[in-house]
Amino acid sequence: MKGPGKVVPWLLVAAAVGVAALFSHAFLKTKKDRAADGVLSAPAVDSDIRLTDMDYTEVREGKPIWRIKAHEAKYYEGEQKTLLSRVDLTLFMESDREVHLASDYGLLHTGRKDIELWGRVTARVPQGYEVETDKVYYDHGAQKIRSQAPVRLMGPQVDLQGNQWQYDLATSTVFVEGEVRALVRGLFSVRNGK
Prior knowledge:
It holds the Pfam family LptC. One of its GO terms (molecular function) is lipopolysaccharide transmembrane transporter activity. Keywords: Cell inner membrane, Cell membrane, Membrane, Transmembrane, Transmembrane helix. This is LPS export ABC transporter periplasmic protein LptC. It is a single chain. By secondary structure, the protein is an alpha+beta fold. The protein has two domains: 1-37; 49-182, lipopolysaccharide transport protein A fold, CATH 2.60.450. The protein is 18% helix and 51% strand. It has one helix and twelve strands. Strands 1, 2, 3, 4, 5, 6, 7, 8, 9, 10, 11 and 12 form a twelve-stranded antiparallel beta sheet that branches. A hairpin with a 4-residue loop joins strand 2 (63-76) and strand 3. It is globular and about 60 Å long.
């Protein structure tokens, strides 16, 4: 017959293995969720170049395409990525119109010039609307800004909320999709209770 002293160490080992498995599963799931959301974390290696108060303007044929300012930028040459903090991004459109975005963090894909922003993202589009969301992706090739995160779009006469948002820079078209809720002001008037 085994004594109680021999069972306790095995129970402790089994409990430790269970806790380690639980933490491993939670860590891997969180990492997969971040990748599925399209938001990348900093590369595992140290950056090749680190800049503070970065200000860079992308120019094509003498015209500015976009301007990005960041409090800090860490460039990873092997991955062709630049990790940014406290980001201000201006996208220049035709007819001297601009879209302004700001966020806590960003990631510039230097090869294809796509930009991810996350952490308290705000955007102002030329039509006078402001957008609040947690993350956006600027697709430079398609000239579109997309967000798969819940979004709030506010303008002079409308307040929209939805699960996704897209802004097409070429056509200046805004899309809000997924469980959209809207508050529209100024379409109706009430006079003396009538």
